[in-house]
Structure formats: structure tokens, C-alpha cells
Amino acid sequence: MARDGSGPADSALVSALLRWYSTNERPLPWRHTTPWGVLVSEFMLQQTPVDRVLPLWEVWLDRWPTPEALATDSVADALRAWGRLGYPRRARWLHQSAVVITQQHGGEVPSDPEALRALPGVGDYTTAAVLAFAFGQRSVVLDTNVRRVVARTVHGIAQPAPHVTTAERARADGLWPRTHARSARWSAAVMEFGALVCTARQPGCDRCPVQRTCAWTLAGQPTPPVNSSRQAQYEGSDRQVRGRIMAVLRDSPRPVGVVALRAASADDAQRDRALDGLVTDGLVTRLPRGRYALPD
After folding, report:
1. Confidence label for 8 from pLDDT (cuts 50, 70 and 90)
2. Which of 251, 258, 239 is nearest to 294 (CA)?
3. What torsion, rounded to 10 degrees, do the Cα atoms 216, 221, 226, 232 define?
4. Residue range 145-158, pLDDT digits in tens
5. Residue 225: what pLDDT?
6. CATH code, residues 9-226
7. Which of 31, 138, 153, 266 is deepest in the core (most CB within 10 A)?
């Protein structure tokens, strides 16, 4: 259990990055919004840059300022509003979460960790982020940027492991400030620092307030082992075809047949595979006579 006051783990690193954050914080709108606005932002920011999320988040919150407002509309409405942000399962999960919040939590985003984690599409990271950024609670928020900053400044390695381990989470817990308010602000600060300065490629070490004590810099900035795995190419992929199918269905006011979807891919087998996957994921409804539509 977190104790009040600062402990030994509330280090010089934390203090330095909090000072940096006080003059470098970006005025992102979800930093001054409702818990629902924070939850929406966390769904949208998964694997998506801030500049792509900003305009959609504002439109979304204007249309659906509360979970109940979204829950009363259809999944199809949510998918259409999601547009080309990508990974449309996030829109379906967000709609499902709005329904659960409305029906089981009186329309209020829950502040209990287990209740948050039980929402569709919400895992450990989103739970921790909402607790910190919506409710100001102490939670260890470990996204890619945060993990990279800690890996470099504390452990002297260029990049963390591909997935969060129990040991990494325990070490991070020892670093996080003990009080709720300071911990929540530190989570935001270290995330911002990783996004703006301690970036994955070409980090701005000349602008780093902890350069002299950074374990990675002191070790000579060793490079990570070469990773033989390469990110799957998007052009020509099933994911691209899925996106094209979703675009056709979003733009059509009525169900469409397979003929209307042929432009999604010249490869019939690939198109059918992508379409079957969308149906399985609940993002597309297969209707009689070979027609398809967004779900109700």
C-alpha cells in the first residue's frame, strides 16, 4: 500500500523530470477533461500519434460527451465516427464500454481498478492510465515512452523488452512517487518526456535535463541487439484490405454486396479472408443474399 509522503524511491530523476514537465507540458485537451474524456483518449491513442487523435477526439466528445450518449447510439454510428483512425475494434470496444458504464456504473467511469479492467478493451495499461490521469490516483503507468525513459535513465539500456515483465513492473513501482498527486503527475511527465525528448530514434540528449546522470549515456549509449523481426508491411496486407472494406461500409447508407467490395483487393481470396475476419471480430454483419453492413 502506498504511504503518504516521499520516500527514497522519489528520486532526483523524478524531481528533475517534474521540473522539466512544468515548462514543457503540451496543452492536450484530455489533460483537463472528464474521466470519460480521458478514457476516450486512451482508446484512441493506442498505436496512434497524438496529431491524428486530436481532431477526432474533439469531434467525438462534442457528439458523445458522456458514456450514456454513446451507448444510446449504434455500433455503426461509432464505427463511422471513428473514420480512418485505424484499428476499428477500438471503436467497438469503446461503444461496449459505454454500454457497461451506463448500465452497471450509473453512467460514471469507475475509479475502481478491477471495475475498470473489466471494461471491454481495457487492459493493465489503460487501467493504470485512467486511474492516474482521470482520478489522480497512484498507479504505475507503463506505456512505450515511459518504459524507454526508465530503461535508459535507470537501467542503462536503449530499449526495454518487447513486453512488460513482472520484474520490470516491480522495479518501476519502486521508482514511482508514493503520494497520489505526485505519482499521477510523474506518470504524465515521464510519458511526455519520452514523446518529446527521449525518443526511440534520435533522442534529444542535448536537451535532456538528466543527461549527466543518465545510466545509458554514462554507459556510452550502447545499441540494442539487432532485431531480426520486421514490422509487417501495410501496403497490400490483409489489414489494408480490411480498412478499405470498412471505408466502403462507412460511406454506404445501405448494405452492400460483394461486388461493391471488389475494389478493396484484386485478390478474391484475400478480400474474402479480410471480410470473414471483420465478421468474426463483430465489425461487419453478414446479411442474407450476400450483403454486408456495419453492425447495429
Report:
1. very low
2. 251
3. 70
4. 999 999 999 999 99
5. 60
6. 1.10.340.30
7. 153
Q: H or E element: which one contains 194?
A: helix 180-196
Could you tell me where in the chain the CATH 1.10.340.30 domains are found? 9-226
Catalytic residue among 42, 68, 114, 168: 42
Phi, psi of 158 (to 5 degrees): -70, -40
Nearest to 204 by CA among 212, 215, 193: 193
Cα(129)–Cα(178) distance, integer angstroms:
16
Q: Is pLDDT at 280 greater than 70 in this prediction?
A: yes
Cα 73 to chain center, whole Å? Answer: 23
CATH code for the domain defined by 238-293: 1.10.10
168 part of the active site: no
Rounded CA-CA distance 149/199 in Å is 8
